[in-house]
Amino acid sequence: MSAAARSGKRLVVIPMKDPARAKTRLVPTLSPERRASLALTLFRATVDRAQEALALLPGGGVEIAVVTSSPKITRLARAMGLILIDEGRPRGLSEALETAADWAAGHGYGAICVLPGDLAAPKPAELARLLAHDLSGGQMVLCPAEDLGTNALLAPLPCPFRFAYGVKSVVAHRQAAEAAGLCPVMLPLASLRADVDTADDLQHLLAHQPQLLMQEAAR
Ligand SMILES: Nc1nc2c(ncn2[C@@H]2O[C@H](COP(=O)(O)OP(=O)(O)OP(=O)(O)O)[C@@H](O)[C@H]2O)c(=O)[nH]1
Ligand SMILES: O=C(O)[C@H](O)COP(=O)(O)O
């Protein structure tokens, strides 16, 4: 497909570390094997939900990519039929996403939607609502996490501000987008408020989505 034909298209980008280096906040709670397994479970669940969301959208204007430096995630993403973006040497989440946004702009996509790979249970209908959001009038969209992280972001390409993932990043992203002349819209989607970072998040997942962890054990 030519760049011109893609300009109305949107790219969902899921950033993913190597599972062996992931979920370090759970070091006191889980063994290295279980941390890696949890990271993979959450990644697969996020991809599945994103694929279900795409099926709800008419017209096929959205594709899914993974940005990673991990050989294991590269193999898995290929097997899942996803677009692969090589982040090169790992330099952090915002830098990996800058690489992905540059790649997407260079390949003619008109907008990027960043979804972290550790969302516990995003609802496909809510993801579809985000992915279909109108970006006319310079809008961009932020879905805040409970802890004021950024659990989803939809921005036009080329992206006129730099990513600022980290503590209270939704505030930083809002300010950066405004400073770049965009109009940030806060979209507090209920199923995108939680990700799985801490032992408390994991307890919540076990209490409310035990089937997610059982599916992985059965693989
Ligand atoms: N490609 C890429 N993805 C990253 C990087 N850092 C974090 N991620 C991904 O971004 C999402 C949110 O990551 P974090 O919560 O910051 O990291 P985590 O490994 O899940 O957990 P912690 O180690 O406890 O911070 C997850 O899908 C991570 O795999 C990075 O440097 N490169
Ligand atoms: O800005 C953020 O949301 C975080 O850096 C990435 O998400 P998490 O650490 O809350 O998973």
Account of the 3D structure:
This protein is α/β, with parallel strands linked by helices and 219 residues long. The protein has a single domain, classed as Spore Coat Polysaccharide Biosynthesis Protein SpsA, Chain A (Alpha-Beta Complex), CATH 3.90.550. 41% of the residues lie in helices and 17% in strands. It is built from 8 helices and 7 strands; from the N terminus they run H-E-H-E-H-E-H-E-H-E-E-H-E-H-H. Strand 1, helix 2 and strand 2 form a beta-alpha-beta unit. Helix 2 packs across helix 5 and helix 7 crosses helix 8. The longest helix has 25 residues. The chain starts with a helix and ends with a helix. The structure holds guanosine-5'-triphosphate (GTP) and 3-phosphoglyceric acid (3PG). Guanosine-5'-triphosphate binds next to strand 2 and helix 4. The site of 3-phosphoglyceric acid has 11 residues, from loops.
